[in-house]
Design goal:
It is a single chain. The longest helix is centred in the middle third of the chain and has 36 residues. The chain is an all-alpha fold. It contains six helices and no strands. It is extended.
């Protein structure tokens, strides 16, 4: 079988990423970051019930657990989307125009991690700001003026 494959003429295919789809968009990272911000606010606003009310306490723990689960999962998704853009879309030529590109992405990825391990409204807001900066850089590299908006 290998002998037959070696005798065949194949054209070389090149791709800029793991899957040559060519579809990139920072909106997935934005949605993740927005969810992180929303869940952080919900966690901070959640009030613990009187410990003597077993049903209310169980409901509180259930709700808190769900908020934390969503926050952590969405922070992971935002980080994954950021890393895909950073490692698959952006090329050395982009560094000429945006010399702070690596630092911008590195800090955004670190903020995703911080939002997973903390309940920090400050870091959740900083993550949204970082994703907005990535959004602006990304669309500028495509020569498009895509407005920033949030779903919430």
């Amino acid at each position: 079988m290998f002998d037959r494959l070696n005798k065949m003429n194949f054209e070389i295919a090149e791709a800029h990423c793991d899957a040559p789809c060519g579809v990139y968009d920072p909106s997935s990272a934005r949605l993740g970051a927005e969810s992180v911000l929303s869940m952080t606010k919900k966690i901070l606003d959640l009030k613990a019930p009187d410990a003597s009310d077993a049903a209310a306490t169980a409901a509180y723990h259930n709700t808190l657990t769900r908020y934390i689960l969503v926050k952590e999962e969405q922070a992971r998704i935002a980080k994954e989307e950021i890393l895909i853009l950073w490692t698959d879309y952006f090329k050395p030529v982009h560094l000429e125009t945006y010399p702070n590109l690596h630092d911008t992405f590195w800090k955004a990825a670190k903020l995703c991690s911080a939002c997973k391990v903390e309940v920090s409204l400050e870091h959740a807001n900083e993550l949204m700001t970082a994703i907005k900066e990535i959004h602006e850089i990304f669309w500028a590299t495509k020569g498009r003026d895509v407005p920033w908006f949030t779903a919430s």
